[in-house]
Amino acid sequence: MKNTIIAPSVLAADFANLQRDAELLNNSAADWFHIDIMDGVFVPNISFGMPVLEAIQRHAKKPLDVHLMIVQPERYLETFKKLGAEIITVHYEACPHLHRTLQQIKSLGCKAGVALNPHTPVNVLEDILHDIDLVLIMSVNPGFGGQKFIEHTYEKVRKVRKMANDRGLNTLIEIDGGVTTNNAKALVEAGADALVAGSFVFNSANPTQTIQDLKTICEV
Ligand code: DX5
Ligand code: ZN
């Protein structure tokens, strides 16, 4: 049985109760903490920065999966490593020197991820896939939680899975945006390994149970 990674997005947590929500994730079936960093330039929203991440790190007992929706991410890679990032994902659209940026992430001892916006074709990764640990496919436009899942995502997941299989690579595929128990299983069947879920988890009556439901429904 395949173990799907469930990565609840802290963006949808209650920032006035971050310790409580971090402990909720620690004691749940969640595998990673998904951390959305937005700069108001690459995306039309600002989320939170280093002091908040530092506070999360103090309580998180699971890997921090840091998704950088920022321009020039290479300026902050070391800082995010120091703040506990185990996975650092940069956007393809924000990195003119993607190969170098990925090497920088790996030299810090982190897993290197590349995120693709909904309009970015997956074949732009053909000549760099062997240097990528994780491909994050955006299933909404980055910048906000709570948006509607874009159906074309399935097609992109299948294409990346095929690209990786053809090359004999174990690239992780992560899906981010609008994930619920309605689409989770189909995403895993298309080839996804990790699912981010923000509002579906934290806006539910029982987030711990919702995380378990996502985990269970993905057992294929
Ligand atoms: C969107 C972020 C997502 C977001 C997901 O820009 O990258 O991680 O928190 O939120 P939901 O699950 O509510 O779509
Ligand atoms: Zn994200």
Question: What's the topology here?
Answer:
Blueprint: E1 5-8, H1 18-26, E2 33-38, H2 50-59, E3 64-69, H3 77-82, E4 85-91, H4 98-107, E5 111-116, E6 134-138, H5 153-166, E7 172-176, H6 184-190, E8 194-197, H7 199-202, H8 207-217
Parallel strand pairs: 1-8, 2-3, 3-4, 4-5, 5-6, 6-7, 7-8
General description of the model:
There is one protein chain. This protein has one domain (5-217): TIM Barrel (Alpha-Beta Barrel). Strand 3, helix 3 and strand 4 form a beta-alpha-beta unit. The longest helix is centred in the last third of the chain and has 14 residues, at 153-166. It has helices spanning 18-26, 50-59, 77-82, 98-107, 153-166, 184-190, 199-202, 207-217; strands spanning 5-8, 33-38, 64-69, 85-91, 111-116, 134-138, 172-176, 194-197. It contains eight helices and eight strands; from the N terminus they run βαβαβαβαββαβαβαα. The protein has an eight-stranded parallel β-sheet with strand order 1-8-7-6-5-4-3-2. It is of the alpha/beta class and 220 residues long. The protein is globular. The protein starts with a strand and ends with a helix. The relative contact order is 0.18. D-xylitol-5-phosphate (DX5) is lined by residues 9, 11-12, 34, 36, 67, 140, 142-147, 176-179, 196-200.
